[in-house]
Amino acid sequence: MRQLVVCVCVCAVIEHVIAYRYENETGMGDAFSQQLPEFRQRHPRPIGVWTKLTGDPIDLRDTITMNTDIFNNKHHFLVGAHLDRERIPERIVHAKGYGAFGYFEVTHDVSKYIKSDVFNGIGKRTPVASRFSTARQNLGGNDLSRETKAIAIKLYTKEGNLDMICFHIPVFLYKDPIEFPAFVRAFRRNPRTGIVDNTARWDFLTQKPDFLHANLWLQSDLGIPDGYRKSHYFPLHTYEIYNKHGERFYVKFNYRAELGMVNLTNAQAAAIGISDPDYYNRDLYNAIAAKNYPAWRLEMDILTKDELSKLDYDPFDMTRLWKRGTYRTVPVGRLVLNGRVDNHFKDVETSAYNPDNLVPGITGPPDLVFKARKIFYPDTQNYRLGVNHANSRINAPLYDRNYNRDGRPPLQDNMKDAPNYYPNSFSGPMTYVDEARPTERLIPLQRNAFDLQPVSEFYNEIIESDDHRQRIADNVAESLVGVSPDILKKALRLLTLVDIDFGRRVRASLKAQQLASAEEIRSQLAQCIASIG
Ligand code: HEM
Ligand SMILES: *[C@@H]1O[C@H](CO)[C@@H](O)[C@H](O)[C@H]1NC(C)=O
Ligand SMILES: *[C@@H]1O[C@H](CO)[C@@H](O)[C@H](O)[C@H]1NC(C)=O
To answer: Which sites bind heme (predicted)?
Structure first.
């Protein structure tokens, strides 16, 4: 009986989704599927003679090998050999992503806080590249999985590239960066079964409860946004910035979606995911094609140096929010994405975002997680893309002159005949001095202790209704199905420590979910998908 109800409800959702996508309720049409016809419209005739990579034209007779001496067909060998080598390593996290171009426009005067050229001069526009991603999926994974969604933004400013790498939830997972590798493994696939393992996940969570807070945000309604456009984004770190007088401020940046935060239910996400795991990508492409340009308002939460020293919490701890009433928020500008990438591999896969790409006016976040990121982003990019990855068109700044030479391409012009050592007396690139740059750096002492208070606050204050608390409990319970009994006991104890009501709800939900055998639900689902053809 219970399972019958599940089936009816899922079928209804699938029909709704199909209607939603194909009857243009969004007013966007399906530009995605028009890409090839669109190309032909721009090029009614073939764009040229097909050549080998070295330029010699390809003879029609070399495009088949039947009844020929295939080892004499150079063309056959070259295209096969190229295909054999097409893959490069996918990103170790956030492997599945999608890109868009656009601009950032200054809307408010924030010169009293920050001297960076990109944020000064109302109306000033700076070109932007961006890459959206979903955290745990491999290339080709499902956009609709319940996990962190993200945007990485590259602002090509006159003072160099400024990269801002953001999560769609306002808290991070941990404060000690050495936990990153273990976390990534515990939440990915079991080395023997090759399957995501809830026991490993909760084993890790119960021993490193820091991770619980961000995980609960992801188990909430926020865990599955309705596409990349309908979500806020947060670079999360507390950045140290300075103005032209050298005065320092501590800020959190927030990108607030003009479309607001819109979420999908589990049933909607499951139904869409079955037919369209690229739903987020398609949505973004279609929206931009229809000139429904997604936009975000950039704002800064600000603390002065003085205020910072009087707080009763650690403002550099990304596993918690800044306490309400301790800071003020000022608007800065507007990010608009109005351009589709014309080649996904070139503009998205080979892009390299690094949170340490900063510009004068921003000394950067002083916390430990950031210090670790300074090392590991360039490290992985040197491996993934090679040591000259900053030379590719998507990664190169508007202006650069340097003393690097050689290495595997891309090389640009390799600085031609300019002197290749510094200092030199022969007009090589010279340095400048930023008079305002602070001469000292703040080195915060960060506490190791784990604090459940922000997690309880999230459950009791940020979550607005009991219905929502129940949905979180149901999602958490789902992730506890099949967890080994000793770990399960620890998990339930931890959740009860967050809140007694929470522990109770999860326990009850788990019991109900255990009653419904996973196998039966699966066959029921298969039947109802078959029945709607
Ligand atoms: C110890 C801390 C961290 C480490 C070691 C780390 C490591 C990495 C690595 C190795 C990559 C792959 C980069 C590439 O191949 O280009 C990556 C990507 C990414 N990380 Fe982190 N990360 C950390 C913290 C964070 C934080 C705090 C955020 C959010 C504010 C974040 C958001 C992202 C995003 C969005 C991407 C994908 C970027 C893209 O689209 O290219 N990470 N991270
Ligand atoms: C859907 O949108 C496209 C593009 O805007 C339009 O050409 C098409 O006629 C629309 N289809 C329907 C059924 O409204
Ligand atoms: C999405 O979830 C967030 C967090 O609970 C909530 O504030 C927001 O109103 C939700 N939006 C929709 C449309 O469900």
So the answer is: 377
Residue-wise pLDDT for 474-486, tens only, equals: 999 999 999 999 9
CB of 29 within 6 A of ligand 2: the answer is yes
Give the pLDDT confidence of 72-112 residue by residue, as tens digits. Answer: 899 999 999 999 999 999 999 999 999 999 999 999 999 99
Q: Could you tell me if 295 and 274 are in contact, meaning their C-beta atoms sit under 8 angstroms apart?
A: no
Higher pLDDT, 51 or 522: 51
Who contacts 324 (Cβ-Cβ below 8 Å, separation ≥6)?
A: none
Which phi and psi (to 5°) does residue 334 adopt? -140, 130
Cβ contacts of residue 131 below 8 Å, gap of 6+? 97, 98, 99, 151, 152, 348, 351, 353
Cβ contact 495:476 at 8 Å:
yes
The H-assigned helical ranges of 141-265 are 180-186, 198-207, 212-219
Ligand 1: distance of its center to the CA of 93 in Å? 7
Structural domains of the chain, with CATH: 51-86 (no CATH), 96-180+224-391 (2.40.180.10), 464-532 (no CATH)
Please say whether the beta carbons of 248 and 242 come within 8 A: yes
pTM value > 0.85: yes
